[in-house]
Specification:
The chain is mainly beta. It is about 0% helix and about 50% strand.
């Protein structure tokens, strides 16, 4: 039974303490959506609470959160790995007093739109907890939303660009309406031919690979830019860049070594390996997402440390791999 001092939360994602134990990040609902707490997962499991659940808890002044009780909210919740999201929510988009595009929701309060290039309208959205790596970028807001589709209208596709663009190399998510997204990416490899250049891209906003083919663009490895990307059911890549928009500032430090890009990044989260399943330790960083520590170079207390990483073929896929701990 809830008391007057109880507050309500959503168990948004799973994290790892330096000793390898797991915690669930619980984020406040409604007017307290600026509050969030780490709670040891085993402690919540004892109360029947798991990732993606809603709960009430008491937050005493100067004391740990306690009195956890699972609550039944009739939302469509999707749990994918260590993250949970709330699907198929409808909300009106507006600008807050800082000029940031936000969705105003009843249950979750003000939710930041991942895309800041949308027009004011009503959208169908997916709400999730803001990742630790995104909190500074999102001005500390604890919830954000990806757009699934605009309600009540459709969009026109992007126009083509006929001018030659020369992008220099080394010296996040802006979603549009359904199917097409304005996102930031960089070139990590390329195949250059006389008639057409093919660029292999990493999309920083959703941490996915992409391909961009062009007769008029000349982009170097390590070149960062904003582009229009379209999700494809068939093709060499799930995401295809259909339009180059503009060059942007580099989001990460790096260098090109032997025609391969090597990036220097800071670790936001560490996950130990699974000795039984054979999964290697992995870390998570801003813009790149998951990086595999396939040679066990990292200590468990590596959060906040910097590493170097390159993309290598692991099994059938290309993945970011730790090359050096700095």
């Amino acid at each position: 039974m809830s008391t007057d001092s109880d507050k309500y939360f959503f168990a948004g994602y799973r994290g790892f303490y330096t000793d390898g134990a797991t915690f669930l990040q619980i984020i406040g609902l409604g007017a307290i959506n600026n509050q969030s707490f780490h709670v040891r997962e085993s402690r919540l499991n004892e109360r029947g609470i798991k990732l993606g659940d809603f709960l009430s808890a008491t937050v005493p002044l100067g004391e740990p959160v306690k009195n956890f009780t699972r609550q039944n909210y009739k939302f469509k919740v999707n749990v994918d790995g260590n993250f949970a999201s709330i699907e198929d929510q409808e909300a009106e988009l507006e600008k807050n007093k800082e000029g940031i595009l936000v969705f105003r929701t009843k249950t979750f309060g003000t939710v930041r739109s991942v895309s800041q290039t949308l027009e004011i309208a009503k959208y169908r959205i997916t709400i999730r907890a803001t990742k630790q790596s995104e909190e500074d970028l999102f001005n500390g807001m604890k919830y954000c939303a990806d757009v699934k589709e605009k309600i009540g209208s459709s969009s026109a596709g992007p126009s083509s660009n006929s001018s030659v663009i020369v992008g220099s190399g080394f010296s996040m998510s802006n979603l549009s309406i359904s199917g097409k997204r304005s996102m930031k990416a960089f070139v990590y490899n390329s195949i250059k031919k006389e008639e057409q250049n093919t660029y292999f891209l990493w999309i920083c906003d959703n941490q996915e690979q992409s391909i961009f083919s062009s007769k008029t663009h000349k982009l170097a490895i390590g070149h960062f830019f904003e582009g229009i990307f379209e999700e494809k059911e068939k093709g060499k890549s799930k995401w295809q860049c259909t339009k180059y928009v503009k060059e942007i500032q580099k989001l990460m430090e790096g260098a090109v070594i032997g025609n391969k890009i090597e990036l220097k990044v800071s670790i936001d989260r560490y996950e130990p390996g699974d000795g039984i399943g054979g999964r290697k330790p992995q870390v998570f960083v801003q813009y790149l997402g998951k990086i595999i520590d396939n040679q066990d170079k990292l200590p468990m207390n590596c959060v906040g440390r910097q590493i170097k990483t390159r993309m290598y073929k692991v099994g059938d896929d290309f993945k970011w791999v730790v090359t050096e701990l700095l």
